[in-house]
Amino acid sequence: MTPISEHWDKSIREIAGEAALAALADANRQGVDGLFVGNMLSGTLNRQENLGALLADWIGLRGTEAVKIEAACGSGGAAVRQALMAVASGVMDSALAVGVEKMTDTVPATTTGGLATAADSDWEAAQGVSFVALNALVMQRYLHEYGWTKDDFAPFAVNAHGNAMHNPYARLHEKVDARAYKKARMVAEPINLLDASPTGDGAAAVLIVPVDAVASNGRPRITIAGSASATDTLAIHDRRDPLWLSAAELSARKAYAQAGVGPADIDVFELHDAFSIMAALSLEACGFAERGQGPRLALDGEIVPTGRVPIATRGGLKARGHPVGATGVYQICELVEQLRGTATGTQVDGARIGMAQNIGGSGATIVTHILKSG
Amino acid sequence: MTPISEHWDKSIREIAGEAALAALADANRQGVDGLFVGNMLSGTLNRQENLGALLADWIGLRGTEAVKIEAACGSGGAAVRQALMAVASGVMDSALAVGVEKMTDTVPATTTGGLATAADSDWEAAQGVSFVALNALVMQRYLHEYGWTKDDFAPFAVNAHGNAMHNPYARLHEKVDARAYKKARMVAEPINLLDASPTGDGAAAVLIVPVDAVASNGRPRITIAGSASATDTLAIHDRRDPLWLSAAELSARKAYAQAGVGPADIDVFELHDAFSIMAALSLEACGFAERGQGPRLALDGEIVPTGRVPIATRGGLKARGHPVGATGVYQICELVEQLRGTATGTQVDGARIGMAQNIGGSGATIVTHILKSG
């Protein structure tokens, strides 16, 4: 992982290259059979497509097969899944999934305009609805349907920011409490600054190889025990129930079945808290809370590293930051930290099974992975 | 395949949907396990990312796993390859590769600016070099090194335009001869209008399933006997030899080995003639002509459907058209026509083995497929 920040002095290839080379070094390898680059906005914001070939050349692997994978903010998780299938197919013996996004220093377009391309262009964005506004409509409806007050969402921000204090790669190192949440500036009612994740520049990478090719090097062996992806409508108004992430439910159910586990077995859950309402909806769709009861888990203190369902243990999207196409790979790297027992400061005691869920659009593309150690 | 044209009355989802549903109908199927959408410019030109989920919902397959694959103008071929690996991995029993591009009716950006994102943004595009200008520099150097005159390239356009007359999906139905080539308006010297492929709106789709799942329905069974991808530098000036497509050589060599064939066994070669110089370079890198001798094949009449190395048999990029992210899938569909014996008007007699080569950037990402019938 690279630190998530405003890297005005680095181009997108440099950021991606840092993460890719760090992952290869961690695995003590020089090369790889294929590169899968998760990225959403390089064409719009950096005027650069063909990122796969660009990165292969930049890291000294000219000639190596490479491709870019896009699924809006779910691009990183989708890249991990493509790399996994490539290795599982036998076509490749090793595949590197690299998530990268460079969102500052972007002359040609605005980040807000770019993010709106994750929504339905003809039926949502064309009306002028920004991505945060769409999520605000969902949160407003949630408060109305289930009777929560806005302040009940404070624990999501407090947990994420507290955990990020211990993560050197996090975008924000700024402890917040319930009072700060109450006073935070409104972005799109009822979403305030402490409900919304910050964008940023960053990259993360993870190397995928067959299980029997993992060298015994004294560290726990991490396996991908479950991997699944599902979709939903892009436009929220097309859904039968705008308060239910059916693609989260579907992909989690498949991943649970593959791994032979259920929600109660998950020691750490790195979810997609782009907005705090999304954290609540993910907890519900994946079976950690009853419908409409996501905030209850948070209010009961169950989402912190010592709780029953630790989430955002390294800061989550909220405080680690959300370089959109990279986020899904950060989640996997953070699970690896937890399963290796190296999540300094926020280590979940005895973590053996972790789940990551990456979301593209307001629930339109969802990729769920379950990792096991040992 | 959809006809390639200026579809002012259709959005990108409608165009992609037509091709996807046509492919499913051709295979007599209602659904599929996964969608792989090859596309380059939807974010820039259509303000729409997350195309995978968008298409899944639009064609009535809400929930189905879907993702977008990008490798500049090689996106279509790359999508086919991802679909192939997904099925080979055992994760999916069926995968639909859909290539789509909508290049007219694009308010936010120019097509020329979009296409430039296939080049190196920091070192090529930043200097104001357009994509056609880059190819013009390569062609100029080629003429200088090997002593050809510009008019020696006329047969590439004549063959492509002649073949497209018989293809109902082609962008251009306009027979041209050597005199028309000589008189064609210059775009970027020495590339004239008849060296350059037209952009357009279009989509094509191909369904991939395990060999033993193909129903015996009286039609020849088409198998993918070879599939490989390789990369090169994005920036042409970074290459040791700007007149050699090393990624074409590398990917073709791998595909030949997998299929157990060589250039002499290929009955049809759908190559990436975005510019006529690229047709010559592909013929050389893939072993159909000696270095610097690509135009010789064309001048000797060997590239027409009755020749030794039939290329662009349905019009190629030059006359069938080049909706960039869709092109690689059109090539596969055209090979299927040839191998089924349904390439009316330009059928290659007894075609049994076909090769398609799709290029992203000026040779930066190259995907090569070999198909066999029977």
Describe the structure in your own words.
- The structure is a homodimer of 374-residue chains.
- Chain A is an alpha/beta fold and 374 residues long.
- Chain A has a domain at 119-197 and 214-373: Peroxisomal Thiolase, Chain A, domain 1.
- Helix content of chain A is 34%, strand content 16%.
- Chain A is built from 13 helices and 10 strands.
- Chain A has helices at residues 12-26, 42-45, 51-58, 75-88, 111-115, 131-146, 154-164, 178-183, 246-259, 276-285, 294-299, 316-319, 327-340, and strands at 34-38, 65-70, 95-101, 186-188, 191-192, 202-208, 222-231, 268-270, 353-360, 365-373.
- In chain A, the strands form 3 sheets. Chain A has a 4-stranded mixed β-sheet with strand order 2-1-3-6, sandwiched between helices.
- The longest helix of chain A has 16 residues, at 131-146.
- The two termini of chain A are 23 Å apart.
- The model of chain A has no long low-confidence stretch (mean pLDDT 96).
- At the A-B interface, helix 2, helix 3, strand 2, helix 4 and strand 7 of A face helix 2, helix 3, strand 2, helix 4 and strand 7 of B.
- Strand 2 (65-70) of chain A pairs antiparallel with strand 2 (65-70) of chain B, so a sheet runs across the interface.
